[in-house]
Design goal:
The chain is of the alpha/beta class. The chain folds into two domains: 3-248 and 455-477, 3-Layer(aba) Sandwich (Aldehyde Dehydrogenase, Chain A, domain 1); 252-436, 3-Layer(aba) Sandwich (Aldehyde Dehydrogenase, Chain A, domain 2), CATH 3.40.309.10. The protein is built from 16 helices and 23 strands. The strands form six sheets. It has a seven-stranded mixed β-sheet with strand order 15-16-17-14-13-19-20, with helices on both faces. Strand 11 (218-224), helix 9 and strand 12 form a beta-alpha-beta unit. The radius of gyration is 25 Å and the shape is globular. Bound molecules: nicotinamide-adenine-dinucleotide (NAD). Nicotinamide-adenine-dinucleotide (NAD) is lined by residues 146-151, 155, 173, 175-176, 205-206, 209, 224-226, 229, 247-250, 281, 382, 384, 410, 451, 455. Nicotinamide-adenine-dinucleotide binds at residues 146-151, 155, 173, 175-176, 205-206, 209, 224-226, 229, 247-250, 281, 382, 384, 410, 451, 455.
Length: 498
């Protein structure tokens, strides 16, 4: 049974870890390995390595940093298949989806390759007589990333390429459910020429997380995961004086207008609801059918859901894999039952799905629940499984009001052929990421990613310009080089410019 260790100061190590957790292959339901769980003392070692490495890396020239980033980009690209296999083996998503995840992570590395341009400061010549003012940004120090199971390579890559490009050193605490990809990423950073100690991985659970949140040498924390933990991370790390961005859960709605093409909308809704078994923070979990759109949409969505081929992620014939754990499957199955009990119509029921030769895998088939009301558990809970709920609304105003009354505000979409309706929607919804006939509007790496309300705690979104801002702090220099003919200008009054 392979043991997944930590990666500290350039090598895999068990440190002093005595606890571990099982890692499963969700398609077989069998344990495939065990991952070490770091203690507070182990986290202290990781942070100490990162702190030592910061002395040199924070002084590395932009040219030196960029060279490493370009080399890392090439290495991730050439190991894309291997990374995808790690993801599929431990997460369960199909290989093509896993490759897409790595590709979207790579786009952040490519953005970070432009760090010399991104870190350019401002300069005001002769702000006062003989005085120039200029600004630049410096790294923070040791920064930590705590990440969820659902994108084990991409979500950490929203963070570490930019943090490292800005001159910080990084400690990653990946999800203990699918930790292997992070080990390969650490090796690729090293091969790219990154000095040891700049990128470190500590595996663990709440003990490791708390140690990072409380460590005086951790300057900033980036978190992505569920809302209750995001809120906790934000409160505890903020109380300890750290800069924090904590991205939480989601309940993403897609409005379908009567003027939308129902086949186009249904095809995209099914892809957005059932892709990666619904385990995406940008998955569409609620379709809001407006007026006459409902019945035609439902017929098409049911056909789409029934056509999804469910099976192991490494089989080329599968469109959708298993969910992450047996506990997750049981929770989703319980929520589907509650949907039926509370008055919803089970138009497609994915419970009890059996995949031949993989009977012990963690399966839930695509499920569609119609006539859902906002009071029902399937509406109020983040299901994080392959379940699409359908709510009926009379007008677009009612649909927008429904979205705005939801505590989450991660992503949303509208299907319509009216520019006017689309514009009303994009201006009216209280949501961070919006799609117009695009169901999963994940921003490109050169924009920033983040939701509103209970989907994000903190001021800064991840990657893009806000990522650079999060991982740096500004200095403004006011400078004068006096010479003999210059009046000194010294005065006891508050300095004013002339
Ligand atoms: P999770 O909150 O259970 O875990 C996230 C991280 O927090 C993991 O590293 C985990 O080890 C750690 N953790 C878990 N419990 C903890 C505790 N009590 N104290 C301290 N740390 C703890 O999330 P998950 O199940 O791994 O991922 C799914 C969730 O992540 C969903 O809610 C999904 O919407 C969300 N997510 C959000 C985004 C986004 O961009 N907003 C992106 C991906 C996933």
């Amino acid at each position: 049974m392979p043991t997944i260790e930590h990666w500290i100061a350039g090598k895999p190590t068990a440190l002093g870890s005595t606890r571990n957790a099982p890692v499963f292959n969700p398609a077989t339901g069998q344990q495939s390995g065990e991952v070490l769980l770091a203690s507070k003392a182990d986290v202290d070692d990781a942070v100490a390595a990162a702190r030592e490495a910061f002395v040199g890396w924070s002084q590395a020239s932009l040219t030196a940093r960029t060279k490493v980033l370009f080399a890392f980009r090439e290495l991730v690209n050439s190991h894309l298949g291997e990374l995808a296999e790690h993801i599929t083996a431990e997460h369960g998503k199909v290989l093509s989806d896993a490759r897409g995840e790595v590709q979207r992570g790579l786009e952040v590395v490519e953005f970070a390759c432009g760090i010399p341009q991104l870190l350019k400061g401002d300069y005001s010549d002769q702000a006062s007589a003989g005085v120039d003012v200029f600004s630049f940004r410096e790294p923070l120090g040791v920064v930590a990333g705590i990440t969820p199971f659902n994108f084990p390579v991409m979500v950490p890559m929203w963070m570490h390429p930019i943090a490292i490009a800005c001159g910080n050193t990084f400690v990653l605490k990946p999800s203990e459910r699918d930790p292997s990809g992070s080990q390969l990423i650490a090796r690729l950073w090293q091969e790219a020429g990154l000095p040891d100690g700049v990128f470190n991985v500590v595996n663990g659970d709440v003990e490791a997380v708390d140690a990072l949140l409380d460590h005086p040498d951790v300057a900033a924390v980036s978190f992505v995961g569920s809302t209750p933990i995001a809120r906790y991370i934000h409160e505890r790390a903020s109380a300890n004086g750290k800069r924090v961005q904590a991205l939480g859960g989601a309940k993403n709605h897609a409005i379908v207008m009567p003027d939308a093409d129902p086949s186009f909308a249904a095809e995209h809704l099914a892809a957005a609801a059932f892709g990666s078994a619904g385990e995406r923070c940008m998955a569409i979990s609620t379709a809001v059918a407006v007026g006459a759109a409902g019945d035609a949409l439902l017929t098409e969505v049911v056909a789409q859901a029934n056509a999804v081929r469910v099976g192991p992620g490494n089989a080329g014939t599968s469109d959708m894999g298993p969910v992450i754990t047996a506990a997750s499957r049981d929770r989703i199955v319980g929520l589907i039952q509650s949907g039926a009990d509370q008055g919803g119509t089970l138009a497609v029921d994915g419970r009890g799905l059996v995949v031949p030769e993989h009977e012990d895998g963690f399966w839930v088939g695509p499920t569609v629940i119609d006539h859902v009301q906002p009071s029902m558990d399937v509406y109020t809970e983040e299901i994080f499984g392959p379940v699409l709920t359908v709510v009926r609304a009379d007008t677009v105003a009612e649909a927008i009001a429904l979205i705005n009354s939801n505590p989450y505000g991660n992503g949303t979409a509208i299907f319509t052929s009216s520019g006017e309706t689309a514009r009303t929607f994009q201006r009216g919804v209280h949501v961070g990421m919006i799609g117009i006939n695009v169901p999963i509007p994940v921003p490109m790496a050169y924009y920033s990613f983040g939701g509103w309300k209970d989907s994000l705690f903190g001021d800064k979104h991840v990657h893009g310009p806000e990522g650079v801002s999060f991982y740096t702090r500004a200095k403004v220099v006011t400078s004068r080089w006096p010479h003999v003919e210059m009046p000194s200008g010294a005065s006891l009054q508050f300095p004013t410019m002339s």
